[in-house]
Write a structure and sequence with these properties.
The complex is a heterodimer of chains A (about 750) and B (about 150). By secondary structure, chain A is α+β, with helices and mostly antiparallel strands. Chain A has 19 helices and 30 strands. In chain B, helix 2 (about 85-90) packs across helix 5 (about 140-150). Chain B has five helices and five strands, in the order E-E-H-E-E-E-H-H-H-H. Chain B has helices spanning about 20-30, 85-90, 100-115, 120-125, 140-150, and strands at about 1-5, 10-15, 50, 55, 70. Chain B is an alpha+beta fold and about 150 residues long. A five-stranded mixed beta sheet of chain B has the order 2-1-5-3-4, with helices on one face. In chain B, about 55% of the residues are buried. The chains are: A alpha+beta (about 750), B alpha+beta (about 150). At the A-B interface, helix 1 and helix 17 of A face helix 2, helix 3, helix 4 and helix 5 of B.
Chain lengths: ~750, ~150
């Protein structure tokens, strides 16, 4: 790997940091357009029912209300918001406004009014007559009901039956994970404006502009070219703004009213009425030998996708694949059953199934270690994959998989052995340590189409314009791309313009900010397109400098021939001369198709303190070790990990969208949904293993999702080890701890 | 209803619906959109501003309760083209990701330093306990405040 890097490997702040700290950056909620109207949704208050009557007369009579839309006066096109490319075949069961509500939070109507306050008041005046239907919230019940059962996904390598029929040690666990809210600080919001050519423009904090364009066009029956989706400043997503939720509704309202419309959700609407982390109930059986070698594993996942199909089967497959890529297990089976319930909709959520599958497998690994009397870290080291191992189910090669390094380095830095063997205290406050491992991917190669087009141009004043449909979700994508381009062309970061996605002007990208693909795939494209521009620039420059291309030197914005170092051109002057002499443009448009999808790996080590009287858990210390290949921007990487740990602690200890048996939701506002705050946040040390990955830009791999996959099981394992209990249901609330202690 | 209010050292005379919150007036009447709404119930702190020297959630205060008070918003942190040392420290320490919590976070920290120029780590964490952030895990934010204290 190249070590003398000038821009890559530096911690440079996010590109729009000055606008953010000064409060100047405009998010979609801050936008004002002339003549803009305000929309407000009416969400269902019952979990399952048919709408028999909608009386909007009182609402319509309110001064300032312009129009009210329901299923009676809106398109009835069925769609699936998970669909992100045109060729995707998928079950479609969602519509703009429904007459058959399927969960508390389903969309029934929208009021459009001259101001926000009037729209909010009017929504409360709409009268709905429901015929209530039976409610199913328990996935165990749903699996036996024809209307609720979606289907099964099954993958097997080797023969689990053969292994289990001979095995003498089998450790079985059942694990539950809840629905959680992404809790981006910005609630869902969208602005849409009709054009005079029958077109519509949508500004949205989204993850995939071309998906927004596709869904809006499908739902409204418009050509793709009539829909323009512009990525707005993103106030946090974590997958929650991945699937278009408000965009087709807002575009419809704007078209119908022939006026700009802003549609924004409040926090409760964002929690119940958008997407959630898919809830799971898993069982796992692991057969092991006395020395801790995993002989075989049998996994069953019951996946609750909620009221609509969205990505129910895709997230199940994502879980399945991860089960085969962390440990070397020749004989293994994964069976996933996917069901509907009358509960909030499942969707993408940071990690996309990985947090769930790793909670299951990693809690089980600790129980295997306990049964064998082994150090859980040593058990993992015995079974983890090695660099360049093959995927046993013929998935993409694992690449330079440094899972073992993560554990061995982490054990040293955390002082794992010494901390684990510390004598247990017997008082009220008990401490314990735990660890867990995880894997995730780098894009869609091997699963779905994975390509992106970027164009890059050197300007007449020495600037660089990287045009692409990227999305900065606050993770630093724009700066990451700039650092890569700067490194290739040796040009100052400030001279690079890299705007975000706008379907009118951005070259096509097939998948957007999903699947941990941005650094690995889009970053590779940025690197390749910059390399091609460099080649073209050098070719032309060599003619002007009257030397061979090999003799052309590009450094810090200047270009010269190594044969004549006294004559130096600025990049801008050289571009201008190339234009004059050759009438040529130093620009390249390039489509990069990802050739690989290696694994990324993590090991998290945590120390917790449990108050055995109250059941309260405090996470004292976290060490997150990551196999990242190469950190393009170590500051961003550290920030990603620290934020992901915050999300994972909530997943482990406090966050849950609870649904009672009637489908009523609690945990539907921040006062009842506990997001970890600053005093509860431990120190998080981040240790990076940078051993390079062949197809990543400068060796880089992903970080955004893997970083939240190992923390929750590590915490649960620490609690269970500290108290000698076996809680396997998340979140591990004080009530569950007290109950487990009483039952011990 | 008439409302006379001092925001960022400017006296405004406004005609304001009595139901409007201070947050609404700042954002909609004065165009100061730095303060954000994240929950509307005083839990997330994205709307934090400083009123008479104290950090408050502007979503929990009716505009008319701010009558005669001195309001400072994030837009006033930068003075004469010079950023506040907290803003500089947030930039230098990577304390900003999506940025949606940042204005509120800065105002809570500013109020802390106005009242306590040398807070401990615990005092910093308590000052921002009502400001939620999903991106950073707060670690770089606390680090930034510590740097700002040192740069006084």
């Amino acid at each position: 790997m190249k070590n003398d890097l000038k821009y890559v490997g530096k911690s440079i702040p996010i590109h729009d940091v000055k606008e953010k700290v000064s409060g100047k950056l405009k998010y979609a909620a801050d936008m004002q357009l002339p003549g803009m109207l305000h929309g407000k949704l009416l969400l269902s208050s019952v979990a399952h029912g048919r709408i028999k009557k909608i009386d909007v007369s009182k609402a319509e009579a309110l001064e300032g209300v312009v129009k009210i839309f329901t299923h009676e006066n809106s398109p009835n096109t069925l769609y699936n918001s998970h669909k992100w490319f045109v060729g995707m075949e998928i079950t479609k069961d969602e519509r703009l406004f429904t007459d058959h509500v399927k969960f508390v939070g389903d969309r029934i109507a929208a009021v459009v009014a001259k101001d926000r306050f009037t729209a909010e008041r009017a929504v409360n005046l709409i009268e709905i007559g429901y015929e209530e239907l039976s409610v199913v919230v328990d996935p165990e019940e749903a699996i036996n009901l024809e209307d609720y059962y979606i289907g099964q996904k099954k993958i097997e390598s080797g023969s689990v039956h053969d292994v289990f029929s001979k095995a003498s040690i089998i450790i079985e666990d059942s694990v539950e994970t809840p629905k959680i809210h992404h809790a981006a600080m910005e609630t869902h919001v969208c602005v849409a404006s009709p054009g005079i050519h029958g077109d519509v423009t949508v500004w949205t904090p989204c993850q995939v502009v071309f998906q927004v364009r596709l869904i809006v066009a499908e739902v409204l029956g418009m050509p793709l070219n009539k829909v323009r989706a512009i990525k707005a400043s993103m106030g946090g997503s974590f997958g929650g703004k991945g699937q278009p939720v408000l965009e087709p509704v807002c575009a419809f309202l704007a078209k119908a009213m022939n006026a700009p419309v802003k549609l924004q959700m409040d926090r409760t609407e964002s929690i119940i009425g958008t997407r959630t982390r898919t809830a799971t109930r898993g069982t796992i059986k692991t057969a092991v030998s006395e020395d801790g070698t995993i002989l075989g594993r049998d996994i069953h996942m019951l996946v609750d996708t909620g009221a609509y199909y969205t990505n129910g089967d895709a997230v199940t497959m994502a879980m399945a694949k991860k089960a085969f890529r962390l440990y070397k297990i020749k004989d293994q089976r994964f069976v996933g059953d996917v069901v509907y319930t009358n509960t909030p909709i499942g969707g993408a959520c940071r990690g996309y199934g990985s947090p769930q599958i790793h909670v299951l497998s990693e809690i089980n690994m600790d129980n295997v270690a306990r049964r064998l009397g082994m150090d859980p870290a040593e058990l993992r080291l015995r079974n983890l994959v090695h660099p360049f191992d093959k995927d046993p189910i013929n998935g993409p090669d694992l690449g330079n998989a440094r899972a073992i390094d993560c554990v061995t380095e982490g054990m040293k830095v955390f002082d794992w052995k010494q901390k684990r063997l510390r004598p247990k205290t017997s008082g009220r406050i008990v401490r314990g340590v735990g660890m867990a491992c995880a894997t995730h991917g780098n894009g869609y190669h091997g699963g779905y189409q994975d390509f992106i087009t970027m164009s890059l141009r050197m300007t007449e004043d020495g600037g660089v314009f990287l045009n692409s449909g990227i999305h900065d979700l606050g993770c630093g994508t724009v700066m990451t791309m700039k650092q890569i381009v700067a490194e290739v062309l040796d040009v100052e970061i400030d001279k690079i313009l890299a705007p975000e996605g706008d379907t009118l002007v951005s070259p096509f990208d097939v998948a957007g900010t999903q699947a941990s693909r941005v650094t690995f795939v889009c970053g590779s494209c940025a690197m390749k397109v910059a390399e091609q521009v460099k080649e073209k620039f050098i070719g032309c420059a060599s003619k002007i400098l009257q030397c061979s291309p090999e003799e052309v030197v590009m450094e810090a914005g200047e270009v010269w021939s190594s044969t004549s170092e006294t004559v130096k051109y600025s990049y801008g002057k050289m571009i201008t001369d190339i234009q004059s002499k050759f009438q040529d443009d130093i620009s390249v448009s390039y489509t990069y198709t990802s050739p690989a999808n290696p694994g990324v790996y993590a090991a998290n080590f945590v120390e917790v303190e449990v108050d055995t009287l109250t059941g309260l858990v405090k996470v004292l210390d976290v060490l997150a070790v990551h196999d990242i290949g190469k950190a393009i921007n170590p500051g961003f990487v550290e920030g990603q990990v620290q934020g992901a740990i915050q999300m994972g602690i909530g997943f482990a200890l406090s966050e849950e969208i609870k649904v009672d048996r009637n489908g009523k939701i609690s945990g539907d506002k921040f006062s009842k949904y506990h997001v970890i705050n600053a005093p509860s946040m431990p120190d998080v040390k981040v240790l990076l293993i940078e051993e390079g990955e062949e197809h990543g830009p400068f060796g880089a791999k992903s970080i955004g999702e893997i970083s939240t996959c190992a923390i929750a099981p590590a915490i649960v394992n620490a609690i269970n080890a500290a108290l000698d209990i076996n809680i396997t249901s998340l979140p591990v609330t004080p009530e569950k701890i007290i109950k487990a202690l009483h039952e011990k | 209803m008439e409302l006379i209010i001092n925001v960022n050292d400017i006296e405004y005379k406004l005609d304001v619906n009595p139901r409007m919150r201070l947050l609404d007036v700042l954002r909609e009447n004065l165009g100061l959109t730095g303060a954000k709404e994240g929950c509307g119930e005083g839990e997330c702190g994205a709307c934090t501003i400083i009123m008479d020297g104290l950090a408050i959630n502007s979503c929990m205060v009716l505009a008319h309760q701010a009558r005669g008070k001195k309001i400072i918003t994030v837009e006033a942190l930068e003075q004469d083209g010079e950023m506040d040392r907290l803003q500089e420290a947030f930039i230098n320490n990577g304390a900003v990701q999506c940025g949606y919590c940042t204005p509120g976070m800065l105002m809570s920290c500013k109020a802390l330093l106005m009242n306590n120029p040398n807070p401990t780590d615990e005092e910093i964490k308590i000052a921002i306990e009502g400001n939620l952030c999903r991106c950073t895990g707060y670690i770089k934010i606390v680090r930034a405040v510590k740097e700002a204290i040192q740069n006084q």
